[in-house]
Amino acid sequence: MMVNKKRVLILSYFFAPDISACSFRSHALIIALAEQYPNVTFEVVTTTPSRYSSFKPAINNMSHFDNVTITRIAIPSHSGRFIGELFAASSFFRQVIKKVKREKYDLIYATSAKLLTASVASYLSRKKDAPLVLDIRDLFAENVKDFFSAKVKFFLLPVLTFLNYYTFKQATHINLVSSGFKPFFSKKYISASRSFYTNGIDDVFLADNPRFPSSNFKTPLTVLYAGNIGRAQTLENVIPKIALLLGETVKFKVIGDGRRMAKLIAKLETLKVTNVEVIPPVARDELPYYYQRADVLFLNLDSSESLSYVIPSKLFEYAASGKPMLCGATGFTQQFIETEIDNAQVFIPNDPNSAVEKLKLLRLEKCSRQSFIDQFSRKVIMQQMAKTVMSKIEM
User: Fold this and answer.
1) Which residues contact 1 (CB under 8 A, 6 or more apart)?
2) What is the chain's Cα-based Rg?
3) What is the predicted pLDDT for the residue at 1?
4) Model confidence over 368-386: pLDDT tens digits?
5) CB atoms within 10 A of CB 380
6) Which residues, listed in sequence order, are joined to residue 43 by a DSSP beta bridge?
7) CATH says 203-375 is which class?
8) What's the per-residue H, E or C state across the chain?
9) Is-same-fold flag (6-200+378-390; 203-375)?
């Protein structure tokens, strides 16, 4: 008797080769799923690369997996402002619902930071009577409380309260990327089982490449930040002033793009800072070159409470390099860094003087973080998560 293949719908707003924590995570999970479950069809619906207008990579649709299909939906370009992002996301979700209207699935999975992807997945789960697995990477409602004006919060928070309940009540299983999120997912209104599969270290960051010469920790020190330049990082509040305080003893390099790029550039120009170099986004496999050339790797998270519960994906690839780390963080994030990562100093977010003092405490040497690497291998984490996701299907 012929048995129909199981079908799994996977919603991921960003996907490789786009540059985002979402795309890296989803790509790794799909590889784990495809390898472990060759008799299951995995249908990924995502956007065309759209994270940054300054980065347009070539598209690879993972044709080496017979059981994976990837549909990329074009979305309107936008300036990175909230309204533009909302319009683009709405366009994507309308097209997703239209595309899968007549399809049947045995499981629906979505990874979501801003709740909307998860909400659409919840809607589809109800319509198709399919189990729902959600991967929650951020606390969007808490972010709104911290980052938006009173007027916006007045209108937005009631909507988000409803969406939270509507979305999470439908879930069969919820994965939280940070165990710092636990208090926000009370069993009082969420009956779903839970797991805590974090982000992790990808293989590209594990091996030293002899073609990439390492730093020698000589003055001026090269301090590197690579990643998003947004309101969560508030780099404009800290990097220009640190650069001024330390003068010719340091050279900052900032690689990336984002909605606060213009503010960072403006602050550098206003303060006449000459020891900060801003570099456009680079492909992910090029980052190890910059990490090896740097003396210190830098991260700053805004002091908003909502950011004190996260574990930024950037921490994992930084730690894998063995380089000294200088991080602005509070709360659970600070605890994670101080507990798990050797030769990492945590300063008060947005406080240049605190950053300078903590920089002096770093050991200017490359260290082994093998226990951290072993514990947080992305490949291993995603293999385990793949089993959890697929356990929600009757095979």
Assistant:
1) none
2) 21
3) 44
4) 999 999 999 999 999 999 9
5) 14
6) 9, 69
7) alpha beta
8) CCCCCEEEEEEECCCCCCCCHHHHHHHHHHHHHHHHCCCEEEEEEEECCCCCCCCCCCCCCCCCCCCEEEEEECCCCCCCCHHHHHHHHHHHHHHHHHHCCCCCCCEEEEEECCCHHHHHHHHHHHHHCCCEEEEECCCHHHHHHHHCCHHHHHHHHHHHHHHHHHHHHHCCEEEECCHHHHHHCCCCCCCCEEECCCCCECHHHCCCCCCCCCCCCCCCEEEEEEEECCCCCCHHHCHHHHHHHHHHHEEEEEEEECCCHHHHHHHHHHCCCCCEEEECCCCHHHHHHHHHHCCEEEEECCCCHHHHCCCCCHHHHHHHCCCCEEEECCHHHHHHHHHHCCCEEEECCCCHHHHHHHHCCCCCCCCCCHHHHHHCEHHHHHHHHHHHHHCCCCC
9) yes
> Which pLDDT belongs to residue 57?
60
pLDDT of residue 246: 97
* Token output for 177: 């990327």
| Beta bridge pairs of residue 251 | 222
What pLDDT is attached to residue 307? 94
| Token couple for 218 | 């000589």
Q: Which residue has the tokens 């208090």?
A: 183
- Whole-model pTM over 0.70: yes
Q: Where are the domains of the chain?
A: 6-200+378-390, 203-375
* Rounded CA separation 27/17 (Å): 9
Q: Quick count: other Cβ atoms within 10 Å of Cβ 35?
A: 12
Block residue for tokens 């093998």? 370
Domain 6-200+378-390: CATH superfamily, name plus number: Glycogen Phosphorylase B; (3.40.50.2000)
- Taking 70 as the pLDDT cut, the residues of the chain under it are 1-3, 50-63, 78-82, 187-189, 207-214
Write down the pLDDT at residue 80.
Answer: 61
Q: How much is the pLDDT for 336?
A: 98
Question: What is the C-alpha separation between 237 and 354, in angstroms, rounded?
Answer: 13
For 300-345, write each residue's pLDDT tens digit: 999 999 999 999 999 999 999 999 999 999 999 999 999 999 999 9
132, 108 contact by CB (below 8 A): yes
